[in-house]
Write a structure and sequence with these properties.
This is AbrB family transcriptional regulator. By secondary structure, the chain is an all-alpha fold. The chain has one domain (70-250, 265-355). The chain is built from 17 helices and no strands. The protein has helices at residues 2-8, 12-31, 37-52, 65-80, 85-89, 95-118, 123-129, 135-144, 149-175, 196-215, 221-235, 245-261, 268-300, 304-311, 316-326, 330-350, 352-355. α13 crosses α14 (304-311) and α15 runs antiparallel to α16. The longest helix has 33 residues, at 268-300. It is globular and about 55 Å long. It starts with a helix and ends with a helix. The relative contact order is 0.18.
């Protein structure tokens, strides 16, 4: 009933306008051959409109969190199709980079903390706003410690969004081509026609994975639950294909609009103060990421670009979308990001006493 009641309270005219604006932004980005065009185009258009306080057609930008949550499992189900025996057999070679996360995360966190402190932000907000993962959990911890929820939320969202913007641009330089295609994110299994039975299996994998993942409190359950159930369905031969490229493309637009809409009602003075510091933090964090990627690639057998993507401190869903788009080490990237979120939250909890 809670989900249905939430749907009844939605301003559907505002939602339709938001999705239309996001789709238009994605279409323009595609025409300009920008990387990860559908996600970035929809994000930038809706974020600018929301942050500026504009009301096109008399409606504010809006995208309910529950709608975004309904689409994110599509990414998880798609990633599950990449869990082949060959890929799983390579996992034993990943231990150097998995261990290296234990060094990378405190280094990235400390760098962000120093950037925000040197920029004049309060100690508590600087600490929780610079945690390189676990946005919801770290903001909640900061609120319990007495921090400014608005500032910490803005800093964490800027970390996520700036990483999403910068990483595809960096990949365009590293790989010589744009991330994503006009047809949306694709992978080889997306070309396999799905039968009605396979569609039902994938829907069940997404829904059951999300429900059970939350029930047993999996980290990032909205992604990891569907990934696990989809992986089992593919491994047992119940299904051979994955969600079609057009559906993942729609997911990109919904995710982009959802991120952009979060800037509605944001304090412009706070944004003006936080954005330059967040840009500096993102640039330094990605510089550290690239250094780790260069050093770890020979040890893991993965290309530098894959290790870079596995360490980039963006969102799990968004970084996985880029991995899908590049058809590059999807499982490797996803496993590292799940561990990044878990370790980030654990390290932040452990350091709460130090920060007071």
């Amino acid at each position: 009933m809670g989900f249905l009641d939430g749907l009844r309270r939605v301003d559907y005219a505002a939602l339709a306008m938001t999705l239309a604006l996001g789709s238009a932004g994605g279409a323009v980005a595609l025409a300009l051959h920008l990387p990860l065009a559908l996600l970035l185009g929809s994000l930038l258009v809706t974020a600018v409109i929301a942050a500026a306080g504009w009301r096109p057609f008399g409606r504010a930008v809006l995208l309910p969190v529950k709608l975004r949550s309904a689409f994110v499992p599509v990414i998880g189900v798609s990633i599950g199709g990449a869990f082949t025996p060959e890929v799983v057999g390579q996992a034993g070679a990943w231990w150097p980079s998995l261990l290296a996360l234990g060094l990378f995360l405190p280094l990235a966190h400390a760098t962000g903390y120093l950037v925000y402190r040197m920029g004049g932000l309060p100690r508590l907000e600087s600490f929780f706003g610079s945690v390189p993962g676990g946005l919801i959990e770290t903001v909640q911890m900061g609120e319990e410690a007495g921090g400014d929820v608005r500032l910490m939320t803005v800093l964490q969202f800027l970390r996520l969004i700036l990483t999403i913007i910068f990483v595809p641009l960096i990949f365009m330089v590293l790989t010589g081509g744009a991330v994503g295609s006009a047809s949306g994110t694709a992978m080889p299994a997306a070309t396999v026609p799905l039968t009605a039975q396979e569609v039902a299996v994938l829907l069940a994998a997404g829904a059951s994975g999300l429900w059970i993942g939350r029930l047993v409190r999996l980290p990032a359950a909205i992604m990891t639950g569907p990934i696990l159930f989809s992986a089992v369905a593919h491994a047992t031969g119940l299904v051979h294909g994955v969600p079609p490229a057009w559906l993942v493309g729609v997911t990109q637009v919904v995710v982009g609009c959802g991120l952009g809409a979060r800037f509605a009602g944001a304090d412009r003075r706070m944004l003006a103060r936080a954005v330059p510091l967040a840009v500096a933090n993102a640039v330094l964090a990605l510089g550290i990421t690239f250094a780790f990627a260069r050093g770890l690639a020979p040890l893991t057998g993965e290309p530098v670009a894959a290790v870079f993507l596995a360490f980039a401190p963006g969102g799990l869903a968004e970084m996985s979308l880029i991995a899908l788009s590049l058809q590059m080490s999807v499982v490797y990237v996803t496993v590292h990001h799940v561990l990044r979120i878990v370790l980030s939250v654990m390290m932040a909890k452990g350091a709460r006493r130090w920060i007071g």
